Amino acid sequence: MSSENQQKPKALPPSSPRHVAIIMDGNGRWAKSRGKLRIFGHQAGVKSVRRAVSFAVSHHFDALTLYAFSSENWNRPSQEVSALMELFVRALDSEVKSLHKHNVRLCIIGDTSRFGMRLQERIRRSEALTCNNDGLTLNIAANYGGRWDIIQGVRQLADRVQEGILRPDQIDEDALCQVVCMNELAPVDLVIRTGGEHRISNFLLWQIAYAELFFTDVLWPDFDDAVFEGALNAFAQRERRFGGTTPNDANAS
């Protein structure tokens, strides 16, 4: 993708987003309210992932990015982390053929080197199977953090300077855009967070600079097409200025 795709976009009339990102929050509380272990909520959350992907395909999104496991989630109890890793493996095994059948390209973004070899192999196989699909791009953020993303991009640029490929004065927004995750995709238009919290939690800090934010109290396992549609309706009502002004603002005294 050329760097222009990641530059500040022109203001557009309200429309459906091309790229939606979701912070899937509330699995643990959903399970607790039912007297179950947290992993029960994560298992239920997989069904919501399936619904969200189906919705994105039917609405012809370019990309859907889901925050599955942050770099801070390693601080959770080891039993829960182990169960999440096993769930990730099983989900890849059970879902990738269906994704491929529906022309979905699967990408895992984040530092996957910390995962066990079994999971890393599943990731490689899943991405390879779907790499030539040209429908929806489904990004799963796993062991991902926005700060990590920016730092790994800066390190790439620093290496290029050290190798004499790049001059320090050539490092600008466009240069960094080309080395952060998802640099080949359209910028994120809409961020949805479920579970009632109103924060970004170190998610896609660079990529959501001009995204619209939508927060809902609905816990992730209960996230369905109606809630997704509500987020799109809210998005359609937003006036996206991208740091500029509207004609009315410009003419105001």
Automatic annotation (TrEMBL):
GO-annotated cellular components: cytosol
Cofactor note text: Binds 2 magnesium ions per subunit.
GO BP field: cell wall organization; peptidoglycan biosynthetic process; polyprenol biosynthetic process; regulation of cell shape
Highest taxon of source: Bacteria
Binding site for substrate: 26-30, 38, 42, 70-72, 74, 76, 193, 199-201
PROSITE patterns on file: UPP_SYNTHASE
Pfam family, one: Prenyltransf
Binding-site residues for Mg(2+), renumbered to this chain: 25, 198, 212
Reactions catalysed: 8 isopentenyl diphosphate + (2E,6E)-farnesyl diphosphate = di-trans,octa-cis-undecaprenyl diphosphate + 8 diphosphate
Annotated active site: 25, 73 (proton acceptor)
GO molecular function: ditrans,polycis-undecaprenyl-diphosphate synthase [(2E,6E)-farnesyl-diphosphate specific] activity; magnesium ion binding
Enzyme Commission (EC) number: 2.5.1.31
Keywords associated with the record: Cell shape, Cell wall biogenesis/degradation, Magnesium, Metal-binding, Peptidoglycan synthesis, Transferase
InterPro entries in UniProt: UPP_synth-like, UPP_synth-like_CS, UPP_synth-like_sf
Stored Gene3D superfamilies: Decaprenyl diphosphate synthase-like
Keyword Protease: no
Keyword Cell wall biogenesis/degradation in annotation: yes
Cofactor: Mg(2+)
NCBIfam families listed in its UniProt record: PRK10240.1, uppS
Subunit structure: Homodimer.
Job description of the protein: Catalyzes the sequential condensation of isopentenyl diphosphate (IPP) with (2E,6E)-farnesyl diphosphate (E,E-FPP) to yield (2Z,6Z,10Z,14Z,18Z,22Z,26Z,30Z,34E,38E)-undecaprenyl diphosphate (di-trans,octa-cis-UPP). UPP is the precursor of glycosyl carrier lipid in the biosynthesis of bacterial cell wall polysaccharide components such as peptidoglycan and lipopolysaccharide.
PANTHER family cross-referenced by the UniProt entry: DEHYDRODOLICHYL DIPHOSPHATE SYNTHASE 2, DEHYDRODOLICHYL DIPHOSPHATE SYNTHASE FAMILY MEMBER
Membership in a protein family: Belongs to the UPP synthase family.
Protein's UniProt name: Ditrans,polycis-undecaprenyl-diphosphate synthase ((2E,6E)-farnesyl-diphosphate specific)
